[in-house]
Each structure stands twice: as C-alpha cells, then as structure tokens.
Amino acid sequence: xxxxxxxxxxxxxxxxxxxxxxxxxxxxxxxxxxxxxxxxxxxxxxxxxxxxxxxxxxxxxxxxxxxxxxxxxxxxxxxxxxxxxxxxxxxxxxxxxxxxxxxxxxxxxxxxxxxxxxxxxxxxxxxxxxxxxxxxxxxxxxxxxxxxxxxxxxxxxxxxxxxxxxxxxxxxxxxxxxxxxxxxxxxxxxxxxxxxxxxxxxxxxxxxxxxxxxxxxxxxxxxxxxxxxxxxxxxxxxxxxxxxxxxxxxxxxxxxxxxxxxxxxxxxxxxxxxxxxxxxxxxxxxxxxxxxxxxxxxxxx
Length: 301
What we know:
This protein is an alpha/beta fold. The protein has two domains: 22-51; 58-291, TIM Barrel. 34% of the residues lie in helices and 14% in strands. It is built from nine helices and nine strands. A seven-stranded parallel β-sheet has the order 3-4-5-6-7-8-9. It has a two-stranded antiparallel sheet with strand order 1-2. Helix 4 (148-151) links the parallel strand 5 (129-137) and strand 6 (156-160). The radius of gyration is 22 Å and the shape is globular.
C-alpha cells in the first residue's frame, strides 16, 4: 500500500522554469488560513451572527468634493444640486490648498471668500447643508499647507499627499503621522496614493498609519473613484478592528462622479464595514456631534 510522499516536488511552470514546493510550504499555510476564515464565516451565517454590511442607501453625505474654486468643473450651486438629486443630505466642499498650483489651489484669502459663498448658500438651502473644508497638502517636509488658525475655522479638514511620492518609506510615513497628530486634521484622503493602472502606491507603513489614526481619532477615507479605491478592502477591515472612523467619498470633480459611490461602498463591504463604522452614514447633526466643536477629531460611537 503506497503512501503520499512529503518530499519536495518539482513543478514546471508555463515558461519552462522550475519551482519547488512541499507540504507545509507558505502557500499551503495561507490556503489553510483562508479555509479557516471561510469556515468561521459560515458558522456565523448559520447562527445568524453575520453583520449587516453598509449599503449605498445608508450614505447620507459626501465629505470629499471639489468645485471650480480649484480643479472641479462646476459651481457650488450645481455641485450641491447634483448631490441633493442623488439623495444626499450634505457635502463637504474640500477644494485643494494653495501649494498645489496645478489645481488652482486656494490661498487663505480665496478660502475665506469661499466661506462667504458657502455661508450665503446655506441660508437658503433648506434641509441640505454644505460644510466648508479643504483638501490640504501634506508638504514634502511634513508641514501642512495652512496654519492652525485657518484650519480651526473650517468644518472639515482633509490632509493628503500630492507630491514627493518617491520619498523613503520612513519619511513618507512620518509625513502622514505628523499630519494626523495635528488636532485640526479630520481625515486622511486616499492614504496610499495609488492610481490603478497608472501609479503604484507610495512606500508607506500602513500599519503605523492606522495605529496613529486609532490613537488620534483621525478618519481614514475609502476613496470611491474607480482608479483609486483607496484604502482597499483589507485595510478597511483593519480600520474596523482598530475602531478607526471611515468615510466613503467620491472625490467628485465633476457631478457625474457622485455615481461612483457604490464602488466605495463595495470596498467597505468587502472589508466587513457596517453602517456604524462609516462617518457619512450619520445624519449631519450626529456627525457634527461626534466631531466636536473645538477639535478636528472624532470620538466614539
């Protein structure tokens, strides 16, 4: 009676190359771990313990939106009308900051002019609300594009990296961490910087980034733009484990970009995020309560 051998076997690849594998190899261990995870999910399903995953219908607002104040295509009125038509109750207008010249980034003076326009809009907008924010650059030296005295006047402060993508891992991670430690930074947008099919993610220690996000109460974004989907599903699952607030945003630059929202929701669902994990599934009064009046950070559920 023959028995299966546990000796390494030689497998010929399609290119004629040889590789060696054996029982107990990394691939086998990974396979067994995945089987165990699948079995655990089936057990939860059979006992009625599966979570109710977030849906597109749960999303009440979009917290990362651009207008023609910077590199968006449309006026505030048109952007707000498009969001409202799609059933949203609020948006954060987060045009680019001054250092990103290619996008007509806003100077402090223009940012204050934009604030006046938003204030006037909200006086007559009924039950729809526009929050005043910024997508502010994290500069190559780790400093931020606007000073704290400007940031504290805004409703929603996004920090993101748009330059020096090829810095060493330690340096680009330190930039992100420094931004999250600023008390007025609310959220990090497209944290890994990837553009699918065009640009790889920059070298960044996402374990460290997520640890500091949890420590500081800084939100992470799932960017729903189809070429970004950043953070990805695995990172989304980690945010849930660490209790990090997440926002699913379209990063809309034209009004049809609002239709990308389901792609971000699908990423969140693959990460097992529930409605309670997603900031912009909150009604606006609850979102603002969670954020607090004297901080850019978020408290617990």
